[in-house]
Sequence to fold (486 residues):
Amino acid sequence: MYNEIALDQININADPPTEEPARQHYFMAKCRKWTVAFAEKNGRLPQACVVNFGCQMNARDSEKLSGILECAGFMLTENENADFVIFNTCTVRDNANQKVYGRLGELNGYKRRNPHMKIALCGCMTQEAAVVQKLRKSYPFVDLVFGTHNLFKFAELLWTTLSAEKGMVIDIWEDTDQIVEDLPVERKYPFKSGINIMFGCNNFCSYCIVPYVRGRERSRKPEDILEEIRRLVADGVVEVMLLGQNVNSYGKNLARPVSFAWLLKEVEKIEGLQRIRFMTSHPKDLSKELIQVMKTSKKICRHLHLPLQSGSTRILEQMNRRYTKEQYLELAMHIRREIPDIAITTDIIVGFPGETAADLEETIDVVRQVKFDNAFTFIYSKRTGTPAAAMENQVPPAQVKEGFDRLLKVVQDTAREQVARSAGKILEVLVEEVNESDPSLVTGRLSNNTVVHLPGDASLIGKLVNVSLEECHGFYYLGRICKDLQ
Ligand code: SAH
Ligand code: SF4
Ligand code: F3S
Fold:
């Protein structure tokens, strides 16, 4: 998309435009002048490295950062010893933060050897005041800090940083209702792409920091989303993943409200698009209409990520999830009845304040009944500022660990059983990459998201092929390309 922006025609000696995205295009043009001067002086292009620490939404943001950097004339690299390095951070659990601090230390080592290096930090972590304070005090070598709400301003901030002699440039917004369209994006995969359909979250689950660092729910206009997908398809994309913290409430706050199910039907009509995924669904907002749309769709993948968090109604209430164990079970079973070949995956937190062994048994009971095809299990992490952090009955770590291991065992057993359901079938696989450990194989995914390895080469990447699922190896298959679909 970025090559459509005629940067050469922008007069960078004039005052910057006030409207967006023209203003950012102007700063991209200014940065490009800087990168050209760098190349003339050093005999090489300046290198930039974007590192992603978070969820799919974070990854999509990283593609936007990469697009802007590339447009500004940087050469992208995966090597962190680069001229410009940006960490796109996550703060959902404390270990995500610790990883960033550790890696910043390593960057400082590179910077000592290359003092011209610029280091930037953005993403969810930087929306926390305590983090910014810590950066100022203990990480003064960081050159640029900005947040989630002003990511669209990256070109402008990049220019400020490149032209500044020294000192930390900090620009954090509390919130925003702005959605800036038409900025460059550099996709990681040519054949698949994430698409933001909404930003922020209004749910305030009591353990979760996301609403504080991502702000209130804002939906993109359907015509912008559909236009972006059409453009991606014209550019070779066959699979899209519609992204939002709670896609089921998509469209409710638009001037002309629409439902997520309606959006899916519109996306389905786009010719050339083969697969549609989406993430994440909150159980309280999942409509019967959506289940029917999924059931009759030819393109929506047979996979639903439906975070449970806990199977204990008492804990769910404390978590402010707004459904009971029984409601979750009823919903999951209804989906299984309506779409028997669907894979249901989930997220579960162990060790929420006040959780007892009996509560955990309730969770394990739900896992056994629903038979999740996969479950991400997390140890509860106390996030400052959330209601749960102030709860008194925090669970001792040894008890959490014991419960976590017990749950994990059940989760793995049911997942293995579920994955084995496809054994012997012939199903469609979208080939994604050459296998990392065995280059005679390629790796792809079934519609239900199960990983399949099969003999093949790079020419298959991005193609949908029919594969006979010969050997089930726990969580993945070894298969073989086959001509007829069962
Ligand atoms: N919006 C999504 C989830 C976003 S965060 C949803 O509501 O389902 C991804 C997962 O991280 C959550 O589903 C939850 O299981 C986990 N998580 C969030 N906050 C956490 C915390 N404080 N400690 C441990 N896990 C947490
Ligand atoms: Fe966090 Fe709950 Fe919002 Fe998901 S729905 S992002 S868990 S507050
Ligand atoms: Fe992490 Fe932010 Fe995503 S906190 S999980 S990167 S929304």
